[in-house]
Write a structure and sequence with these properties.
The complex is a heterotrimer of chains A (350), B (80) and C (452). Chain A is of the alpha+beta class. Chain A folds into three domains: 126 residues, Rossmann fold, CATH 3.40.50; 56 residues, Dna Ligase, domain 1; 123 residues, ATP-grasp fold, B domain (D-amino Acid Aminotransferase, Chain A, domain 1). Chain A has eleven helices and 14 strands. The longest helix of chain A is centred in the first third of the chain and has 15 residues. The mean pLDDT of chain A is 92. With 80 residues, chain B is of the alpha+beta class. Chain B has one domain. Helix content of chain B is 49%, strand content 16%. With 452 residues, chain C is an alpha/beta fold. Chain C has two domains: 150 residues, Lyase, Ornithine Decarboxylase, Chain A, domain 1 (Beta Barrel), CATH 2.40.37.10; 181 residues, TIM Barrel. Classes of the chains: A alpha+beta (350), B alpha+beta (80), C alpha/beta (452). Chains in contact: A-B, A-C, B-C. Chains A and B meet through helix 11 of A and loops of B.
Chain lengths: 350, 80, 452
């Protein structure tokens, strides 16, 4: 692999634990690039993110401030990191940090020349759970009927619009399946105490969970999409193993979503296939999934495509992939010298 | 001060018997080194007064608090 | 050999996981001066604690807000929400910038009059207006913003008796998609109450329906709510035109624009999530402009934004009284200001900066106020440098509500100074003394002496 373009990419989400972040899979994909010779700079929030210690994948790492510390802190830290590393691209991989990176996208480009390829704030907001049903209705994409409720008094009226079971969801996280109105009430109070109002009530759809990792160019074109059916799910609801499926209907649905939103960047679309074979869109995650390396394994290197889009290099949409490839996740104990932990804990880099 | 506490110039402390790690600032490092060398709190106080620009009443209070923290973290032997 | 500058020793356990060594750097960048005036010199001259208003920042905020609206809409008028900060010097900065007064009580009304605001440039809002106050407002030709039917009937009767055409506006509440809904003020749009009130006013020959008013909430993060509110007010205005052939003089969109303070419980920093004043302006003006008013019948757009105008022009300077350890080992720092004067500490995580240089070593701590009351907590958890007794701090974004909602409780209220645009410091409110307070008290004769 000669003549590859040398670039430096900052990547977050190095928490390759039992409920992993997408950082390491993204990095593995980039390291396998045929176009780029990539130096990886890890950006971590915690001192025990496994990626910090995976030196064969992550060339050097820096702690960055938690999203709650604000954009200003982030910019200061990036200024230091960039003065040492000269980053070409950053790929943020956490939902919680995206708001700040999107907000600071222009400043990061102007001040440091670092490029990103992120959804706009409008796109980011348009996929919020509370508005997804209307989005689906407007764009001919099936989304289970859902409704926001603001008080427990509204629960008694739900039976006119929903049938049991229904899913009670928090604004950001959490979902529970309720079979009786008492359960709805109990979940409503639990979830609203944690995530605030509104609480989202969604019609439960039973069926098979299928997800798509996809990437959009920001003009409505889908650059790549690979569907995966979960084969085994951990107690945290994460796929332990999955298989890439050949499903043109699902890919068409993904293309429709990306076109409707003019989605810019990577995403994960969560669908459910009911017993009649209909697909319902459950959620749009605004970043690559942790299983994105499966797409690379099937012949669609989405992280590499994202880097090309960010750098303004030519990108040809992927048209095919090898269905039937599987991923099986495993854990692995690294032996780490205390000196390394000391470095990240005291000077914030390793 | 427990003898097996590992101490580095960055202010990183590691207690091999419990597996806990700590971080301290330069003056904290000075104090811990003195204690480790067997100085009594009184001798440490004198050492700090000689090295730092500080009034005795203030270092007395701050040192007492610091040693209390070392004790609560079980970094010191029971005899101090 | 010269001695090393002292900083107290600190040791922290590294909790597995988050060490976030660089996370809060900006929070402890020292703030040693405000508008070029040193914090230490202000404290020396005016005491600690002390509120500081930056006239420069205040005027900058006012001008940029006016610019945001005036470049988008031909007829704009701001009114200063007195309750946000009614120190006269502060009010007069606004009035010098061409801003009217918006008051919600007889007390605030008197302040506006005494500041020299012409009666017809005072908007009289709020649910509590006495008969006497209504009479004064009528005499001065101020616009009375009706809050409830009882008030409508009282004002109607008074106007008729006085045979005086009286200017009124109707406060409308509505569903804007933001909850909880503020439906306790004014008349509801959705259930027809507002329209009912409009018809009663229009049918009364002594009442002149001058404006429609709404104020949809506070610290509003969704600009879309203002678009909805604007379209509902426009709908009423258009209906008034078609049913009564009357053009409404103004639409008053109230206030509620967020400042960059971080609300407690908010994961992200306030500064990173609040809309800009331009976004609010765009949301409101584009709806009105596109609603179909004839160019010469476009209503005047009134805004009563308070918090967003003044919050970041106000600072609170204070000092460390003591540091101590709590039973669980946490550091506690006791400041000389608490919730008595920093009332907004109840709902904001105020940004606090040290006013002198420190090393990069920090500590997590609880910040307490000086009151002998358990609720007196300024920040439940904050990472700050190794503060010691006598060190000074600067609390940011305290300009809104603190200098009106502060309490004289246990302590007396401190001085408020204003730094003018040339960097000169003026006292704009003197610190309270025991005389200030005792002059209000009187002693029954039989209690005037005792023996102990």
């Amino acid at each position: 692999m000669v003549n590859r373009k040398k670039i430096t990419v900052g990547v977050t989400g190095l928490n390759n634990i039992d409920s992993p972040g997408p950082g390491i899979p993204v990095i593995r994909s980039l390291k396998e690039s045929k176009i780029y010779d990539v130096r990886i700079i890890g950006l971590s929030y915690e001192s025990l993110e496994p990626g910090l210690y995976m030196h064969e994948l992550v060339d050097y790492s820096y702690q960055i401030p938690l999203p709650g510390a604000g954009v200003e802190s982030l910019l200061q830290r990036l200024s230091y990191i960039n003065s040492v590393e000269k980053l070409d691209v950053i790929i943020p991989n956490f939902d919680a940090e995206l708001h700040n990176f999107i907000k600071a996208e222009k400043q990061i480009l102007d001040a440091f020349g670092i490029k990103m390829f992120l959804p706009t704030l409008e796109q980011f907001d348009a996929r919020q759970k509370s508005v997804l049903y209307n989005f689906g209705k407007e764009n001919g994409i099936k989304v289970p009927y859902s409704k926001m409720i603001f008080s427990a008094a509204e629960i008694s009226k739900l039976q006119h619009e929903f049938t049991y079971p229904m899913v009670v969801k928090g604004k950001f996280y959490d979902a529970s399946i309720a079979y009786t109105s008492d359960q709805v009430t109990s979940y409503f109070h639990k979830i609203s105490a944690k995530w605030g109002l509104p609480v989202i009530i969604q019609q439960f759809v039973s069926g098979q969970e299928v997800n798509v990792t996809a990437i959009g160019d920001g003009n409505g074109n889908c650059i790549g999409a690979v569907p995966m059916r979960k084969l085994y799910i951990t107690d945290k609801g994460k796929a332990w193993a999955g298989v890439a499926t050949d499903d043109s209907e699902l890919i068409d649905s993904a293309k429709k979503v990306i076109k409707a939103l003019k989605w810019k960047g990577g995403n994960e679309l969560e669908f459910i296939r009911n017993n009649d074979g209909e697909y319902f869109l459950l959620e749009i995650n605004p970043r690559f999934p942790a299983w994105v390396y499966l797409a690379t394994g099937c012949g669609q290197n989405h992280p590499e495509a994202l880097v090309s889009l960010a750098l303004g290099d030519k990108v040809k949409p992927f048209n095919e992939y090898i269905a039937g490839k599987m991923f099986v996740r495993y854990s692995y104990d690294m032996i780490v010298d205390l000196k390394e932990y000391e470095k990240i804990s005291t000077i914030g880099e390793v | 001060m427990k003898k097996n506490i590992a101490l580095s110039d960055t202010g990183f402390l590691f207690n091999p018997s419990t597996g806990d790690s700590y971080s301290t600032n330069p003056i904290g490092l000075d104090i811990i080194r003195e204690l480790k060398d067997g100085s009594s709190p009184k001798e440490v106080l004198k050492f700090i007064l000689g090295k730092y620009e500080v009034e005795e009443s203030r270092i007395e209070k701050d040192l007492g608090d610091f040693i209390d923290m070392l004790k609560s973290f079980q970094l010191m032997d029971n005899n101090g | 050999m010269s001695k090393i500058i002292y900083e107290r020793p600190v040791i922290t356990k590294l909790n597995t996981g988050i060490s976030n060594k660089f996370g809060t750097r900006t929070e402890y960048t020292p703030v040693t001066d405000i508008d070029g005036v040193s914090v230490k010199s202000i404290i020396k001259e005016h005491g600690s604690p002390c509120f500081v208003i930056s006239e420069k920042q205040l005027r900058k905020n006012i001008r940029s807000a006016q610019r945001a609206f005036k470049t988008r809409y031909p007829k704009v008028q701001f009114a200063w929400s007195y309750k946000t900060n009614y120190i006269n010097a502060v009010c007069n900065v606004f009035h010098q910038e061409g801003i009217w007064a918006e008051v919600v009580s007889g007390f605030e009304y008197q302040k506006a009059i005494q500041n020299g605001v012409p009666g017809n440039k005072i908007l009289f809002n709020g649910p509590d207006k006495t008969t006497e106050e209504l009479k004064t407002a009528m005499e001065n030709n101020s616009v009375i913003h009706l809050d409830h039917f009882d008030e409508l009937f009282e004002v109607s009767a008074m106007a008729e008796e006085r045979k005086q055409k009286t200017r009124v506006a109707i406060r409308v509440n509505m569903d804007t998609g933001v909850y909880p809904m503020w439906d306790r003020f004014g008349f509801n749009y959705e259930n027809g109450q507002a329209w009912n009130c409009i018809n009663k006013v229009m049918a009364n020959e002594w009442l002149d329906l001058t404006g429609l008013h709404c104020h949809i909430g506070t610290y509003m993060l969704a600009v879309s709510a203002y678009s909805i509110a604007a379209s509902k007010l426009c709908d009423l205005a258009v209906n008034i035109k078609s049913q009564w052939n009357k053009s409404i003089e103004y639409l008053d969109m109230g206030g509620g624009f967020a400042s960059a303070n971080s609300l407690k419980g908010s994961y992200l920093q306030g500064a990173d999530i609040i809309p800009t004043i331009d976004e609010y302006a765009e949301a409101i003006t584009s709806v009105i402009l596109n609603y179909g008013f004839k160019q010469n019948e476009l209503p005047l757009l009134i805004l009563e934004t308070g918090r967003a105008m003044i919050d970041d022009a106000g600072y609170l300077l204070g000092s460390v009284l003591a540091t101590k350890r709590l039973s669980d080992g946490r550091r506690a720092t006791i400041m000389d200001f608490g919730v008595n004067i920093l009332f907004t500490a109840f709902w904001y995580n105020h940004k606090i900066s040290p006013a002198q240089e420190f090393s990069h070593h920090t500590e997590d701590m609880v910040l307490y106020g000086p009151l002998c009351m358990n609720i007196d907590v300024v920040r439940e958890s904050i990472t700050l440098p190794l503060l010691s007794k006598g060190d000074n701090v600067v609390v940011h974004r305290v300009g809104a509500y603190n200098m009106t909602q502060w309490m004289q409780f246990i302590q007396m209220r401190p001085r408020v100074v204003m730094i003018d645009e040339k960097g000169e410091v003026h006292i704009i409110r003197e610190r309270e003394t025991i005389q200030t307070l005792e002059q209000l008290e009187s002693m029954p004769k039989h209690l005037s002496s005792f023996e102990l």
